[in-house]
Amino acid sequence: MRKINIGLIGCGTVGTGVAKLLLENKDIIIERLGTEIVLRRVADIDIKKDRGIKFEEGVFIDDAQKVVDDPEIDIIVEMIGGKGIAKDVILKAIKNGKQVVTANKALIASHGKTIFKEAYAKNVDIAFEASVGGCMPIIKALREALVGNRIYAMTGILNGTCNYILTQITDKESLFQEALLEAQKKGFAEADPTLDIEGFDTAHKLSILMSLAYGININFNDIYIEGITKITPIDIMFAKQFGYKIKLLAITKKRETGIEARVHPTMIPFDNLLSSVNGSLNAITVSGDAVGDLLLYGYGAGMMPTASAVVSDIVDLSRNILFNSKGRVPFLSYQMEYVKDISILPIDDIVTEYYFRFSALDQPGVLSKISGILGEHNISIKSVNQKSRKTNEPVPIVMVTHIAKESDVKKAFNVISSLNIVCDKPVLIRIEEEDK
């Protein structure tokens, strides 16, 4: 049986992990695949850095173009990252008729439609399991294991950096900046953590999962995105008193009027399994009509967990090549002619429960005035926590509501914010209960 030749482009953290797995676990891969996967070429701009791997003579080069153009290479593994060179490499690989593996969620979320169109035209497979959830096989689950299900909803913790920071704030009462610095020291956060802490990384992943679940074109731009930079120990403390933990969640739900798609800090009950997912771990729940609720849990990032997902894609594509079965599984779970555009509901249309925190002067009638405005906007209060009195000084007034509409909440906040008894901008955190 023929061997499968691999061209790895980008030998950073994850690329190095991929090379290590292919070389160090070669025997078990042969036993499972039935043939040898050969690391024919590895390209990186820095070939002098010691990566702890001994490549055969001529394998490690600094010219990605030679890898893409090598007629002996069957699969190109793109580990460059970003949307520039990585896009060019993938499109050139497709043009050359090579199968492609990538972990590049930003590229798939932004240019997936173009890339998949080109791959479909050339009868080339693209695998991207590692783009969402690291070692959690969520893409394989949606494309294959759950193929007989209608997917109603998905809720996930999809960014280890944010989850680590929120865990630090919760467990150690750290301020956000302190928790971020700790995450950077441990290697969980980049030097520029913007994509993570502002929610964009999570939204990239959510856009991919929605396409797989609902058969829609990838639509990153219409997802509502809110990061974790404003989460404080005081809100985490109040959340605990109400029986909640705060997590950055990716949430999508299929409604009759469209699809909800949002990323934001969320309060979830202690008995929700996602509330116990701490540190840099990821998890996602999928709700299907046949399986009910399914939970996947594991490391969403890191050298070896992500490399594990990349190697699983390499083996899948190798099996396709060996049995000449390209296109066996559609890129986005649905056949191309059935992938469609479905509108994403604006955030103003969502209906959920809310946590509010107001900083107001402690004067007679303040609570009733705020409650009255909320009532005028169809917002019913479930619980109230008001701190001890400090006459004529600001004190926090904390409320949890029953189900309300986001647009009503925004209107009420605009009125409340204009009151001279309210000292700071009110805080809003959405709450996700079961079956809402």
Characterise the protein shown here.
With 436 residues, this protein is an alpha/beta fold. It has three domains: 4-136 and 303-338, Rossmann fold, CATH 3.40.50; 138-299, Dihydrodipicolinate Reductase, domain 2 (2-Layer Sandwich); 348-431, Alpha-Beta Plaits (2-Layer Sandwich). Helices cover 36% and strands 24% of the residues. The chain is built from 14 helices and 17 strands. It has helices at 13-24, 26-33, 64-69, 85-95, 105-122, 138-145, 160-172, 176-185, 194-197, 200-214, 233-241, 303-322, 366-376, 406-417; strands at residues 4-9, 37-43, 60-61, 75-78, 99-102, 126-127, 151-157, 224-225, 244-255, 258-269, 281-288, 292-299, 351-361, 381-386, 394-401, 404-405, 427-431. Strands 7, 8, 9, 10, 11, 12, 13, 14, 15, 16 and 17 form an eleven-stranded mixed β-sheet that branches. The protein is elongated. The protein starts with a strand and ends in a 5-residue tail after the last strand. The model has no long low-confidence stretch (mean pLDDT 94).
Q: What would a concise description of this structure say?
A:
The chain has helices at residues 13-24, 26-33, 64-69, 85-95, 105-122, 138-145, 160-172, 176-185, 194-197, 200-214, 233-241, 303-322, 366-376, 406-417, and strands at residues 4-9, 37-43, 60-61, 75-78, 99-102, 126-127, 151-157, 224-225, 244-255, 258-269, 281-288, 292-299, 351-361, 381-386, 394-401, 404-405, 427-431. It is α/β, with parallel strands linked by helices and 436 residues long. Helix 4 (85-95) links the parallel strand 4 (75-78) and strand 5 (99-102).
